[in-house]
Design brief:
One of its GO terms (biological process) is carbohydrate metabolic process. It holds the Pfam family Thioredox_DsbH. The strands form 7 sheets. The chain has a 5-stranded mixed beta sheet with strand order 1-3-2-4-5. A hairpin with a 5-residue loop joins strand 4 and strand 5. 51% of the residues are buried. The N terminus is likely disordered. The chain is built from 31 helices and 21 strands. Helix 12 runs antiparallel to helix 13 and helix 20 packs antiparallel against helix 21. It is of the alpha+beta class. It is 50% helix and 9% strand.
Length: 812
């Protein structure tokens, strides 16, 4: 830590001067500056204000990010000799990207940590992922630079971490940065003591400022090591206090169901009725907006669950309108299908172009749920759209799914530098040349005319400066619209069906042309947790659309995970595997075993897959995974699951995740999994664990319900679960008719079980007491149960429809 008033002043002056220079530079380029430069006194005041909290050095990172400009350092990059560092032995695409840096990078592990202790050097940890735009920028500016590398190698033990391989290290470092700087992101850069206590950190750091960091911190470590360690101790104790779970008292109970309604109303207050999505009213049009599938899943569920017709209608409108607006916008890839990570504006117009598997996996379920509720083919078409992208571009031939595609790519084959979005955007002239063909039977309309109208194509490009801070999209068009296809149909006096057909034909022409461009890099890491989400996605899509192909894709992925990502000797999951030569599946030299979300997400995927194909093997595997995670991650004292096993060197302490963000939390999903398995296999121990988990997060749920919408759905499931037993031959027509009637409805928190009297040798017949009491019958029948109370047998379609119409899941 850079401590002492005199030590800080030189950096304060430097940052202030850099800010002033940047302000002038921006004014010259843009004619005005939206941000005044940081004065020396302003920086000093901010530092002094936070000194009492031992945050001084940490807050410098926010000034570094605000007050510094990027410098082109290509002249210092040695391209003549590409020496490899320790990362060359790794399998992670992200780590391999840095394998020829002049920095002596290590992967996280004993070799690096032992050397740090032996040489008593500070550890510099840089965390990112292969599709991260700013990670690429910092590598180009700093980590390929000989001068920077020399400073790093002489004074630090340098470790590169793929956040997708090691979410445990990433989450702890992110908590440190967010707690003490108020922001977070990647690349995530943290300096640690040899004993793994955090000293200082930040996100993206420009080259010249990074050099200042490296020199100053190394000097302080030499001259004031004891003070730095003392400060790091204070920070560590503070952070450990944040993650420590307070023991529950006898007065603690389950979170109240009122928290569910509070979350619903909070989301409705944040709902953007014009553009869809959820955002603060204080956000400007140029603020980023994320899909947030956990919120979408929650509001669609609330439509079914709420007793209030007003709230039911509001949540349904919010969910459907958001899904439609997203599909119209540039966040949706209209040419190559699938969805990008997020939009840089509140109108979904211009995306950050990377594509992540976990987004596709969750959004396909949201659109499938929307179709089940509405029976509107608009939503089933988007389900097919996402499925097309995932199976074409993210699927290994044996069934597993890759992680992501990069945002950056070469604009042309002979270009030397990648640009964000280059693969996806179009110039006006390019589109005109490709789409000059007339629409069949419409002599006065070309495909180009249709595309221009549908996607707001402009001759000068349709990306505003505010949406393109680095000028990479100047003169380019993102295919994006605020309106549905009906606007284009009305303008040209076509039917909507004709318009959709012609736009699809135009997009196919563009797809074929785009396929000739350099593609963004594929991260072919296959992550257990994200494959679990995708198994759920395809299983639920198959159920909703009655599409056996989707169920087969989910089944293939489950078999892949069981074969390649489950260590049958240790009976543990691996975190990930990799595509090797000739598509061979390989493990890392030092395999990384699974974290709690790997177990939770995969268990959910297997339970969803069971309800899609009724193969009881997946119940057995899910049950085994549940027992394993209970052994490895369960907090027997306070309830809830830790994210890590606690084995091996780590930073700070074991953490518990309860926030449903870009992905749902492992605890939220595990709670539902336990309740479902408790029903399927008469496991009261799992229901008791689910209760303890909810109690463990009671205060969080009560005080901040909006951060845990998925866990709130599990809370409803705890109080109002429902089981639907269908008895009959699996391949019988009447059995399928009854199953399809049930599947045509969205029934949150329900468990669907099929029992075939002729197939009794399975875990369900052996463990489920309700099934053992159902008497075999000649014809298919249904029992609807709550707990141990079941309806009389339902043996006719008419009777089943009547009973399904009476279902009310919760009293909200």
């Amino acid at each position: 830590m850079i401590s002492g008033r005199c030590s800080l002043l030189s950096i304060v002056r430097r940052l202030s001067e850099k800010s002033k220079q940047q302000c002038c530079t921006e004014a010259q380029k843009n004619g005005c500056s939206k941000r005044s430069h940081l004065t020396e006194s302003a920086v000093a005041r901010h530092i002094n204000r936070n000194r009492a909290n031992h945050n001084t050095a940490l807050f410098l990172s926010s000034f570094v990010r605000m007050a510094s400009t990027s410098q082109d350092s290509d002249k210092n990059i040695d391209c003549s000799e590409a020496k490899k560092n320790w990362l060359s032995l790794e399998k992670s695409p992200y780590l391999l990207q840095h394998a020829t840096n002049p920095v002596e990078w290590y992967p996280w592990g004993d070799k690096a940590l032992e050397r740090a202790k032996k040489e008593n050097k500070i550890i510099f940890v840089s965390i990112g992922y292969s599709t991260c735009h700013w990670c690429h920028v910092m590598e180009r500016e700093s980590f390929k630079d000989k001068k920077v590398a020399k400073a790093m190698n002489e004074n630090y033990i340098n470790i590169k971490v793929d956040r997708e391989e090691r979410p445990d290290i990433d989450s702890m470092c992110m908590m440190f940065i967010q707690r003490f700087t108020g922001h977070g992101g990647w690349p995530l850069n943290v300096f640690l003591t040899p004993d793994l206590m955090p000293i200082i950190g930040g996100t993206y750091i420009p080259r010249e400022t990074f050099l200042t960091y490296l020199t100053r911190i190394a000097k302080e470590w030499t001259q004031q090591k004891d003070k730095m360690i003392k400060s790091a101790n204070v920070i560590t104790e503070s952070l450990n206090g944040l993650v420590k779970t307070k023991p529950k008292t006898k007065d603690d109970g389950l979170p109240p169901l009122e928290s569910v309604l509070l979350c619903a109303h909070m989301l409705m207050d944040m709902y953007d009725s014009e553009n869809g999505g959820f955002s603060s009213s204080a956000m400007s049009i140029n603020s980023p907006k994320f899909p947030e599938p956990t919120n979408l899943n929650f509001v669609l569920s609330m439509h079914v669950l709420s007793n209030s017709s007003a709230l039911s209608e509001m949540t349904l409108e919010a969910g459907l309108h958001t899904l439609k607006k997203m599909s119209y916008g540039g966040i949706h890839d209209h040419v190559g299908q699938g969805f990008h990570r997020y939009s840089v504006d509140t109108q979904w117009a211009v995306p950050h172009f990377e594509k992540m598997l976990y987004d596709q996996a969750q959004l396909i379920q949201c659109y499938a749920n929307a179709y089940v509720i509405t029976k509107d083919s608009f939503f089933s078409n988007i389900v097919d759209d996402i499925a097309t992208y995932v199976t074409r571009d993210l699927r290994h031939k044996e069934g597993g799914f890759y992680s992501a595609e990069d945002a950056d790519s070469l604009p042309t084959w002979d270009a030397s530098a990648k640009q964000e979005g280059a693969f996806y955007v179009w110039t006006y002239d390019n589109l005109k040349a490709l789409l000059n063909k007339k629409v069949p039977g419409k002599d006065n309309v070309t495909y180009f005319d249709l595309i221009c109208r549908r996607f707001s194509v402009q001759k000068a490009g349709n990306v505003r400066k505010e949406q393109d801070h680095h000028g990479e999209l100047k003169g380019k068009n993102v295919l994006s619209s605020k309106l549905g296809v009906e606007d284009t149909a009305s303008h040209f006096n076509f039917t909507e069906e004709e318009t959709e057909k012609y736009i699809k034909e135009a997009c196919q022409i563009l797809f074929e042309e785009r396929s000739k461009r350099p593609r963004p890099q594929l991260d072919d890491k296959i992550i257990t947790a994200w494959n679990g989400l995708m198994i759920s996605g395809f299983a639920r899509a198959g159920i909703a659309l009655k599409n056996e192909k989707y169920v087969e894709l989910a089944t293939d992925a489950a078999r892949f995970v069981e074969r390649y990502l489950f260590d049958k000797d240790k009976r543990q999951l691996f975190r990930s595997c990799y595509r090797g030569k000739d598509d061979e599946i390989v493990q890392g030299n030092v395999p990384i075993y699974g974290f709690h979300d790997d177990y939770a997400f995969l268990t959910k995927g297997l339970l969803d897959l069971y309800e899609a194909n009724f193969d009881s093997h997946w119940i057995e595997f899910a049950n085994e995974l549940q027992d394993i995670q209970d052994k490895l991650f369960w907090d027997s004292q306070n309830g809830g699951y830790f994210s890590t096993t606690g084995e091996g060197p780590t930073i700070l302490t074991r953490m518990k995740d309860s926030d449903d963000g870009a992905e749902p939390s492992g605890n939220s999903i595990a709670c539902s999994n336990m309740l479902r398995l408790a029903i399927c296999l008469d496991r009261d121990d799992l229901r008791n664990k689910a209760e303890k988990l909810l109690i463990a997060f009671r205060n969080k749920i009560m005080n901040f319900p909006i951060v845990s919408p998925q866990m709130l759905l599990s809370l409803i499931e705890y109080h109002h679960s429902m089981q639907i037993y269908v008895t009959g031959k699996v391949d019988a027509k009447e059995t399928m008719e009854m199953l399809n009637l049930i599947r045509e409805r969205m029934i949150p928190g329900s468990v669907l079980i099929l029992t075939d009297p002729e197939q009794r040798d399975n875990i369900l017949f052996h463990k489920n007491s309700v099934i053992s009491k159902i008497k075999p019958a000649k014809n298919a029948m249904v029992h609807i149960c709550r707990g141990q109370e079941c309806s009389l047998p339902i043996s006719s379609i008419k009777h089943l429809i009547s009973e399904l119409n009476k279902i009310k899941i919760a009293d909200l």
